[in-house]
Design a protein that fits this description.
By secondary structure, this protein is mainly α. It folds into 2 domains: 41 residues; 97 residues, no CATH class. 77% of the residues lie in helices and 3% in strands. It has 6 helices and 2 strands, in the order ββαααααα. Strands 1-2 form a two-stranded antiparallel sheet. Helix 3 crosses helix 5 and helix 5 packs across helix 6. The chain starts with 6 loop residues before the first strand and ends with a helix.
């Protein structure tokens, strides 16, 4: 009795082995896709953050923050008291870095990933916001704590 003569469920042994190999290949392909999916999502998330940072509204917010530079604390307080739209523009950059710090704290991103992309900006903007943060920490203990954690060297 040759291999061609063996039958399993109406299939020849060759057809049965071919079916098992195809099935095993599909299982392996599915496992690889599931294993790579979180990495793809993670990479997409980082690219979205970069796109946000480079968006027109963020470029404008960064321009305005840099324009106030050493007077940033006073400008934030002034526009906050007057309930002006400029207040939200001035805190937009700090809020962005605070959100990144929260993502690091939650384990969604690593501090090194964030620093790879934003280290110079973090240091620059933390310097500009530091007076405001220090002054308001008396009332709000964790104000921009995530931003501060990103700015600190390990």
């Amino acid at each position: 009795m040759g291999c061609e003569e063996l039958r399993i469920g109406g299939m020849s042994l060759f057809e049965f082995i071919t079916l098992i190999i195809i099935f095993a290949g599909l299982v392996i392909a599915c496992i690889q896709l599931m294993w790579q999916q979180p990495k793809r999502r993670h990479t997409g998330f980082l690219l979205d953050l970069m796109q946000t940072w480079r968006s027109d509204s963020f470029v404008e917010a960064r321009r305005i923050v840099n324009q106030y530079a050493e007077n940033l604390e006073e400008a934030i307080e002034k526009y906050d008291k007057e309930n002006e739209l400029e207040y939200y523009t001035l805190i937009k950059v700090a809020n962005f870095f605070e959100d990144l710090g929260t993502l690091v704290r939650r384990g969604e991103l690593t501090k090194q990933e964030i620093r790879d992309y934003f280290s110079e900006s973090i240091e620059h903007y933390y310097h500009l916001y530091s007076k405001y943060i220090e002054r308001h920490r008396k009332n709000i203990l964790n104000l921009y704590k995530g931003f501060e954690d990103l700015a600190k060297e390990d």
